[in-house]
Amino acid sequence: MYRRLLSTLQSATLRLDVWIQRVLPQDFNPLYYTGGLANLFLTILVVSGILIFLYYEPSLEGAYASVEFLTRDVPYGVVFRGIHRYAADAYMVAILLHLFRNWFTDRYREARDSQWLSGMFLLVVSGFTGFTGYLLVWDERAQLLASLTVQALRSVPLVGGWLARVFLGGPGVSDTTLPRFLFLHVGPAMTLYVLLWWHYVRLRHPKIWPPAVWVLFSLGLLFILASALPAASGRPAQPGASPEGFPVDWFFLWPYVLARWLAPGWALALVAALVAYGMVIPYTVRETPEQRGLRALGQAVVVEENCTGCELCYYDCPYNAIYMVPSPYPGKSRAAANRKLLAVVVDSRCVECGICIGACPFEALELPRMLDKDVQQRIQRGAGAAAPATS
Amino acid sequence: MKGQDGTSGYLALAGFLVVLALVCVALMLYGEWFDRRLVASGALGVLLVLYAAMVVLFRKAGWTAEE
Fold first, then answer.
1. What predicted TM-score, i.e. pTM, was given to this entire model?
2. Most exposed: A137, A191, A227, B11, by fewest CB within 10 Å?
3. Domains and CATH numbers, chain A
4. Are A165 and A87 in contact (CB under 8 A)?
5. How many CA atoms lie within 13 A of A182 on its CB side?
6. Cβ A230–B38 below 8 Å, yes or no?
7. Residue A120: partners with Cβ closer than 8 Å, 6 or more residues away
8. ipTM value
9. Which residues of A touch B52 (CB under 8 A)?
10. Contact residues on chain A for B41, CB-CB shorter than 8 A
11. Residue A223 and residue B42: Cβ atoms within 8 Å?
């Protein structure tokens, strides 16, 4: 059932590519750049965030007023605030598209688990950073969100009280609360770049930036949204008040919608369970590649006597699965007689894609279960099956 | 001939977008001059989207190559 669902979603994803490419040139397909688009929106968030930070005052008395001053009195302040707000939503959309596309097209298994795991951490930290951004305005919505969060944290066994104190910067809302919220917004935002390094470190040619056409379009869309639907605060937070509702931003505040039906502690537990499931997805696949009907060609193997140390495979491998080491002895072929380096395949990173085979002009790499004789056998079997029966 | 017809269609559309882009520039100046800053920033947004559309049209018309 699960496999059939994933297979259907994979077909739908690939069909969507075909439809998009009927309208746009192939290299403009935005679904090829969901990661790059997320990076673009993150950059916009950082730049607009720095501008907003210049005017922000992290105190109970000053936070709301400083945001209102930025919105009403600073030239184009409302636009920068709107861009920060809508770029955050666009960032989450790009991340989720990236996640689902890689999930549905099987790009999370075996050697790609490192990208999947780092991506899940990026999703969680991004969601938390976005949520704390709503607290900084310190309006009625922020007050209610803080109250629900404290209730949820206090329900955590053993460490709940401590977590709530860490969140508020003290036993209750006080002068230290807004600086703490600011730290909880900026600190995780900075760790996103560490996580991005982890996300990219095993990729040789990550598409970290979208084509210019999508940079222009995305920036334009953000300006239009920020101008047509300016970001606005609710009423200022009042000490002792208990607001009952708030406008929902589904990308960041969906767990709080659950609080309508569940106790905050259970909503937190549900979020934690979803995150835990997301983390183990790459390890839930029990079938071998053969059972899944996928390629089972074996990890690439270097034919040492043919390797010239030219590094073409090293540069072409998208998964950093090939390293160049000092050559222990010269190769036997004429081309390899004077080599100084030798290619070595890191088995745990090889996904058997065969790109290195295509990159090597010296037949110095092969997939052990895809040799010439295997190809010839397959052709013969195919030809035999296709041959008309003779009577 | 078919390709040429398609090309001229794309370029005609790009020309129309250039006119719209000029209108956006005028709106940006108006917004800045008369303190209607949301108009100015909205016009800037539309201008950027128009530029993006022009890049696509130029590619489809064969004027630009893959990046």
1. 0.83
2. A191
3. 28-283 (1.20.810.10), 301-369 (3.30.70.3270)
4. no
5. 17
6. yes
7. A275, A278, A279
8. 0.91
9. 213-214, 216-217, 220
10. 76, 79, 223, 226-227
11. yes
